[in-house]
Write a structure and sequence with these properties.
Leucine-rich repeat, LRR (right-handed beta-alpha superhelix), alpha/beta, 18 strands, 2 domains
Length: 261
């Protein structure tokens, strides 16, 4: 009788453990993606990047999918050395883990999509040269403000309209040729500026020679925006970026100033 009671109790315990096991689930085994570059685990929401197989260097672009699974969480990129200078995080990522980029002292730029709504503790600790590229009004902007991390807007003129601008002048250097914008010219300029992407910061334009096209925008609120197109750079109020739009902007400014481009 006693054995039967013990046997019954053991079965009850096993049933309870099985129920807990089914409720919690099995810890997903770490995988390496088909490219051999990323280690990840699967969660309900998608793939969690654990680290890059090879030590990352230079400009790092995080993939939006691994083996067909959407990347939603960046736990980290390395647990050893970190020699990256810029990181681009794809849309769809919602979380960046604790100490994900800890100690990446050479990191100067991280582009963060609007989808990110969580940053772990010390995600960018000791990244002393870092500027975040964020969407206006995003959680990433709030995070940067709270932790006093320098930031810029990835599409700074996305919501710009011609009504926001009182006047525009353009100057072509070194020719020192100037031109003024009509209302229609301002509308055309706004259409170009709306697609300016500042996710790739680069302040090395001073090392290049050649023609610069400098736009001075007097805004309706009384402020000024100084935008220089200097292929392949755009410099906005003293901060430089690499972007393909600079070619279109340079050509447009040269047309207004009636200068060969």
């Amino acid at each position: 009788m006693r054995r039967k009671l013990l046997h019954g109790k053991m079965l009850g315990v096993l049933a309870l453990l099985l129920a807990l096991f089914m409720a919690v689930g099995v810890a997903e085994e770490e995988r390496t993606d088909a490219s051999g570059q990323w280690k990840y685990v699967l969660e309900d929401s998608g793939a969690t990047i654990m680290e890059r197989v090879e030590i990352p260097t230079g400009d790092l672009v995080i993939p939006s999918k691994l083996d067909g699974y959407p990347v939603t969480y960046i736990y980290g990129i390395t647990d050893t050395e970190c020699d990256v200078t810029s990181v681009t995080i794809p849309a769809g990522v919602t979380r960046i883990g604790t100490s994900a980029f800890y100690g990446c002292s050479g990191l100067t730029s991280v582009t963060i999509p609007e989808s990110v709504t969580y940053f772990g503790r010390n995600a960018f600790l000791h990244c002393d040269s870092l500027t975040l590229s964020v969407a206006r009004g995003s959680f990433a902007e709030q995070y940067a403000e709270e932790y006093q991390i320098p930031y810029v807007f990835a599409l700074p003129y996305k919501d710009l309209s011609a009504n926001d601008i009182l006047s525009v002048t353009v100057e072509i250097l070194p020719h020192k040729v100037r031109g003024d914008f009509s209302e229609d010219d301002i509308k055309d300029l706004v259409a170009i500026l709306r697609i300016v992407d500042t996710s790739n910061r680069d302040d090395s334009s001073s090392a290049y020679g050649g023609q610069a096209v400098i736009f001075t925008l007097t805004m309706a609120d009384g402020t000024e925006e100084i935008i220089s197109a200097f292929n392949p750079f755009i410099v906005i109020n003293g901060v430089g970026y690499r972007t393909d739009v600079c070619y279109e902007l340079s050509g447009f400014g040269a047309t207004i100033a009636k200068t060969p481009f």
